[in-house]
Amino acid sequence: MTDIKFAWSELGGDPALLARVSTVVREGVLPARLPVRELARACVGACALAGAELGARRAGLPRVPGVRVDDGAVATAFVSERHLLVDGRAPVSFAPLSRFWRTADGWVRTHANYPHHRARLLGVLGTAKDPAAVEAALATRSAREVEEAVYEAGGLAVALRTPQEWAAHEQAAAVAARPLIERGRLDGVRARALPPLHGTPLLPAAGLRVLDLTRVLAGPVATRTLALLGADVLRLDTPHLPELPDQHADTDFGKRSALLDLTADRRAFEELLTEADVVVTGYRPGALDRFGLSPEALAERRPGLVVAQVSAWGAYGPWGGRRGFDSLVQAATGIAAVEGAAERPGTLPAQALDHGTGYLLAAAVLRALTEQSHDGGGRFVRLALARTAAWLTGGLAAGVAAGGEKGAETGGEAGGETEASGAAHEGPDAWLAETDSGIGRLRYARSPVSFDGGPVEWARPPGPWGADPARWA
Q: Which end of the chain has the smaller Cβ count within 10 Å, N or C?
């Protein structure tokens, strides 16, 4: 199975519902050697179908609304951070020290957007933050040595690997042994009954309370999508690690943002948890367990909860506890080698692992809620960027190759119809919008998640980071 059929199967969805999905195929979007457009289309389509399914269930509709996946909308959303303007200013996606560097024996990719990660990288190298000094220091060391030394210091650096080198790594074997979407039950308690839906737009997640404990980028994409679909999403951040302002502006549409110290304000968190329906976490595996935020511990205190987790490398294998970001996963898993040239590594045309995994995470939450409406029980769902990468480079790529050229998709491939094949793509403008907000005038990418009667805009733009009270609306 390829594309949306595989993703929908991994979500536990009814294959008959795939007939409700139609696709507008546009040539030239998200160009890459790997099937990035197909990945993006599948992730968004599965998410939209999961939303339409839950909406139909709650509204008592005789038929699941039709889902429309437009390659133009998908491609625009997958680079939403590049389209963002704040009072006419374009953000900088990567800091000067977040890039590929030559080493004595190859290449290493670093990530230093956050000040604390930059400080740890520089501490290992013993240099100032001048890129020339960093370049000189890295040129004398091996890529694997840098990888391990920076990891031990709590920073972020990954050696470039070919697909063959990654396949021989223990973490690759651990990732390959897992499903794309891990799903399971936490308890048998009947979850809170959601009220029926009436009127338009159809908001499948209306009335749901979602605690958002995520950062960059997959987790916030997932919770941004749940907010679009009507959920009351409350993002909680520690006051000790400020979020990057542009990251907040891009990914916190529809949400409220509050500051909460889980050590000092534990009682406030527990009060929020007692009324939560969903908790989404996006920190490295185990990082939040000391606060009692493992799925099992959360469900023990809030039976019937849906707990969603996303990480870079998965919660297993020798790299299970490591930090990571999309760009680092691309470097480690062979994607950067495939997309690059002999003289320099390449990148995907978008942070597609982050965005794709984010839409799948939202889809997994929506499907868990639909399942709950039938037979109750707390649920957990887990995804990892490295597992999404394995799908992109393995099963998805093989499926596209077996089916012919990328883009030669038929209705049978998606399970529904192809509204337009090879439609013109005249740029992102049709899927961009502007709004005033508490942080300035914003230009932003609209959500690509679309179904008949569903929402087309978020209920609110992002406000100042951390400015909302830590309580439910």
A: C
Q: Per DSSP, which regions of 343-431 are E strands?
A: 379-384, 417-423
* CA 126 – CA 23 distance, rounded (Å): 52
Residue-wise DSSP of 258-307: EE--TTTTHHHHHHHHTT-SEEEE-SPTTTTGGGT-SHHHHHHHSTT-EE
Structure confidence at residue 359 (pLDDT) = 98
**How far from 156 is each of 97, 238, 242, CA to CA, in Å?**
11, 20, 18
SS3 97: coil
pLDDT of residue 205: 98
- On whether the CB atoms of residues 112 and 118 are closer than 8 A, the answer is yes
Torsion angle of alpha carbons 391, 53, 306, 380, nearest 10°? -30
pLDDT tens figures, 305-346: 999 999 999 999 999 989 999 999 999 999 999 999 878 999
| Average pLDDT across the chain, whole number | 93
Look up tokens 């604390």; give the residue. Answer: 116
Place of tokens 């939450």: 365
